[in-house]
Amino acid sequence: MKKRLVFRSVMRMALLIGAIGMVSHAAALTGYAAAKYPAKPILFVVPYAPGGGTDIMVRVIDRVGTQLKVLPQPLVIENKSGGSGVVGKSYAKTKPADGYTVTCADDSSTVVDLFGNAPWPYNDFTYIAKLNRDYQMIVVRADSPYKTLKDLVTAAKAQPNGLKIAGTGVSQIDVLHVAMFEKAAGVKFNYIGFDSGGQVITNLLGGHVDIAIANPGEAYEQIRAGKVRSLGVSSEKRLGFDSSVFKDVPTWKEAGVNISLSQWRGVAGPKGMAKEQVDWLINALKKITDSKEWQEQYLDKFLQVGVFVTGADMQKEAEEEYAVYKTIMEGAGLLKKK
Q1: pTM for the full model?
Q2: Cα(220)–Cα(238) distance, rounded to whole angstroms?
Q3: Cα angle for residues 262, 114, 171 (degrees, 5° grid)
Q4: Structural domains in the chain, sorted by start
């Protein structure tokens, strides 16, 4: 009888020790898995067509992150354009908030929300990091009769809605910026929207539009090649980039249109991402954007102003921007009636 009791006690002890060992092993595996994020490539959904400012930014993030071994594996970049960024961002939002899908954060999310063209509110994302500030230029073909911004404004006043201006999207930031320019200059253009900045420049060169609104980086190569001329830039001061290209480009204010403005781009994910994943991505993006490779391959090459705002601070800025843009759009008669 005693032998049986002893045997049972030994067996129970062995089972208990085994169970504790299994739990410890499982905990160790869980900790290992968490520490190894990302364990597979991250999908970056670019909500605009190839060749535009956002596409350029994402591809440099990928290239520099891979070169510096900040990203364990290259990003999987998928362009899903349409609806002024709504198609791609909506697609990204259908993915699990597990850290393996991110998309572009930008002020266009605010504008499409105010236009009433988004199925989600502008801030229904996990904010990760704001990475750059960009400006707008009014550009024309080299053979255009408009040599200065004053020439263009004079012609536009003489023929309201007569001059075609190309921009990115039909209900995003370019539309708002054109409306702000129109109000400040006292003119009215015929706005034509395209899927990316690359398409904007292509259609300008093809003679399908008279003028275009574009970021300096989107128009730089064509300006440098002498195919496109910039009539003015939306910054407060003249651009401090390539002086051979931009030294004679006045600000809009210098050229007689009393307004300055900018736009921004960054990274966001589906709502509800875990803090650990967000922190890893912030740390990775910080390493990338602090590097000389980022400075040379992105900021300098594509004429960008670097910023780095993350998480709650980024969300606060977006909320403040929403209030400002709402007021501007109400004044311009662009706000969607709800």
Answers
A1: 0.76
A2: 15
A3: 65
A4: 43-133+263-332 (3.40.190.150), 137-246 (3.40.190.10)
